[in-house]
Amino acid sequence: MHKPRSSMLLIVSPILFLSFLCALAFLLKPPKESPNPLQGRRAISLKSTLVEGVEKPKNAGTHQLEVPPPKQQSPPHPTPPPGSCLVSPNFPAQVSRFCPEKTDLKDYALPNASWCPDMLSLYQEFLEKTKADGWIKLPSFKSNRDHIQGLKLPSGLAVTSDKSEWRIFTRCIQVDGQGYEYVIFFHPSKKKSVCLFQPGPYLEGAPGFAHGGSLAAMMDETFSKTAYLAGEGLFTLNLSIRFKNLIPVGSLAVLNVDVEKIEDQKLYMSCVAQSKDQQTVYAKSSGKQVRQPQSCHHHPQNRWKETR
Asked: Mind telling me which GO cellular component terms the entry cites (predicted)?
C-alpha cells in the first residue's frame, strides 16, 4: 500500500530547506586571503642573513633582500726571496738594518772546505727552510760596526776611531777552520735562532776538545744577535752556563736559542747546545739582555746601568 503524496512532501521539504541554508552560508562566508609567495622567500632570505652574520638592507617596495658583494681581501705582504735577508713589513726594522740588501762586505757565514759533513748537511737543510718556513740566514761580517750602521748607541758608549782592523771576537781567527766556524739562522715570528758551530784546533781546551770558554763566547754571540733582532737587545746583563759534555774539535754543535719573554727593558733567553742527532747535550745556558731605549741617542749611559 502506498503512502499518501502529501506525506512524502513533508519529509523531503525539510531536507531541501537545510541544503539551501548550507549553500547560502557557504556563499556568504568571506574568502580567505591567499598566501603571498614572497613571504616564504623573505623568511628564507632573513634566515640566511642571520646565518651569515651580515645585516642586509631592505629594498623599498619589495620583500627581496640585496646581498652585498664580498669584501676583497688585501694581498698578503711580500715575503723575502729564499735565503736572503730581505724582510717583509711584518719583520722588525732592525732585521733589514742587520742584513743589508747590497753590500761589498765579506760574509764569513758561508761554507768553506773546513766544514765537516754534519755542518754542511744541516746548513743546506736550514737553507731550504728559508724558502718557505720563514727562517733567515744571517750574514756574519768581521765587525758588528758593519751590522749596526746607522744605529745610535747611548751617549758615552759610542767610540770613535780611525782604525779599520776592528774584529768581533768570534771572527778574530782569519784562517778557515782553525777558530770559530759558525752560521746563525733566525726566525723573526718565533723569536728563536739556531747556530751551527764548529770549533777549530785554535779553540782547544782539554786535548782534542773545545775550550769551555769558546762555547760560552759562541752562546753569548748568538744571544746578542737574537736579542737585537727579536727585541732590540743591545748588551748582555748576565749569562749562566751549565756544562754537560765536551765538544770534540772539528765536530758540530747545534745551539738552539729561544727568547723566553720580553719584560720591561729586558729580554730573557735560553740555549741548549747539543749534537746533530740530539743524543748528546754539551751545555745549557740562560741569559738576560737589556733593550735599546726608545730614543737611544737622547738617553745617557746611566740609563743602561739602571736596568741591571
From this structure: mitochondrial matrix
Cβ atoms of residues 200 and 181 within 8 Å? yes
Q: How far is CA 134 from CA 87, 101, 191, 249, in A?
A: 10, 17, 11, 32
Q: Angle CA(112)–CA(276)–CA(207) in degrees, nearest 5?
A: 75
- Express each pLDDT in 196-235 by its tens digit: 999 999 999 999 999 999 999 999 999 999 998 888 887 8
CB crowding 149-184: b at 16 or more within 10 Å, else e: eebebbeeeeeeeeeeeeebebbebeeebebbbbbb
Phi-psi label, residue 53: left if phi above 0, alpha if psi -120 to 50, beta otherwise:
left
**pLDDT (tens digit per residue) in 285-308:** 999 999 876 544 334 344 444 455
Q: Could you give the CA distance from residue 99 to residue 90 in angstroms, rounded to a whole number?
A: 15
Reply yes or no on whether 104 is catalytic: no
Residues 236, 271: Cα–Cα separation, whole Å:
14
Helix segments in the chain, DSSP class H: 5-28, 37-52, 93-98, 117-129, 144-147, 212-231, 302-306
Q: Does this model's pTM top 0.85? A: no
CA gap 193, 225 in Å, rounded:
9
d(CA 256, CA 146): 25
**Among residues 118, 162, 176, 220, which one is catalytic?**
220
CA neighbor of 214 nearest in space, from 281, 273, 137, 286: 273
Strands 180-187 and 233-243: unpaired
CB 279 within 8 A of CB 251: no
Secondary structure in 3-state letters for 148-187: CCCCCCCCCCCCCCCCCCCCCHHHCCCCCCCCEEEEEEEE
The neighbouring-strand residues paired with 276 are none
